[in-house]
Write a structure and sequence with these properties.
It is a single chain. The strands form two sheets. This protein has a five-stranded mixed β-sheet, sandwiched between helices. The chain is globular, with a radius of gyration of 22 Å. Helix 1 runs parallel beside helix 2. The chain has ten helices and eight strands. By secondary structure, the chain is an alpha/beta fold.
């Protein structure tokens, strides 16, 4: 039966649509669903003339998060990496609800477009969890300061806020227009753009940044103010500037 299939795969010309099919549980990510998604994504290079991958949800919502009774972090990590590392442009077409692991799934895509009344959020904190696995992918869309606020409160937010936060490609949910824009680009060039902006490049940037920060910290530690502060701490007294 169709409702027993965790993922529905449909191709229409240059577009491959992957639909989450766990509507009874608001498309919560199960082990079977994540495994099916990962397998397809890792095999996309064998799809001749394919240009765009769209991920969406069957039923009333896109994805309510991970199924806490049927998943493990490693599976979600593998899925998000496969999606981010996919050589083809990827689009999350979200509607209804996009929470938790669904936010990670969407953020790992190159583009996110949303229907008008979609609700977003990171509710993990409300059940004593944290959005650790998805955070590296969310940080590519939303600032760390905003993530801190949303992760701590677990609050929901709407489409206009999502757009202002940088999560959405556009307030327009016209998927056909987006596909047309993507297909208008050269496929090999697009794959190189994705490599250019991949995690490996990010790591090089982070190493350079950390090296710079280490030099800065060394300079500060050797300054008179830091020396006084450390001495005051060791001597259990107030530093001179606080008197």
């Amino acid at each position: 039966m169709a409702d027993e299939i965790p993922l529905i795969v449909e191709r229409d010309g240059k577009v491959l649509t992957l639909s989450l099919n766990n509507a009874d549980k608001k498309n919560a990510l199960t082990s079977e669903m994540m495994g099916a998604l990962s397998a397809i994504l890792e095999d996309v290079e064998n799809y001749e003339d394919l240009r765009v991958i769209i991920i969406k949800g069957i039923g009333s919502v896109f994805c309510s998060g991970a199924d806490i009774n049927n998943w493990n972090p490693e599976e979600l990590q593998e899925l998000l990496f496969s999606l981010s590392d996919c050589p083809l442009p990827t689009v999350a077409h979200v509607h209804g609800v996009c929470y938790g692991g669904g936010m990670g799934l969407a953020s790992a895509c190159d583009f996110i477009i949303a229907e008008e009344d979609t609700k977003f959020g990171f509710p993990e904190v409300k059940i004593g969890m944290i959005p650790a696995v998805i955070s590296p992918y969310v940080s590519r869309k939303i600032s760390i300061g905003r993530m801190r606020e949303l992760f701590i409160t677990g609050e929901s937010f709407g489409v206009e806020q999502a757009y202002s936060f940088g999560l959405l490609y556009s307030l327009n949910s016209d998927i056909e227009k987006l596909i047309k824009n993507v297909v208008g680009g050269a496929p090999l060039a697009q794959s190189f753009v994705k490599k250019l902006l991949s995690e490996e490049v990010d790591k090089e940037f982070i190493n350079e940044r950390d090296s710079h920060l280490a030099e800065l910290i060394t300079q500060i530690r050797e300054g008179s103010e830091a020396q006084e502060g450390m001495a005051a701490f060791m001597q259990k007294r107030s530093p001179s500037w606080s008197k």
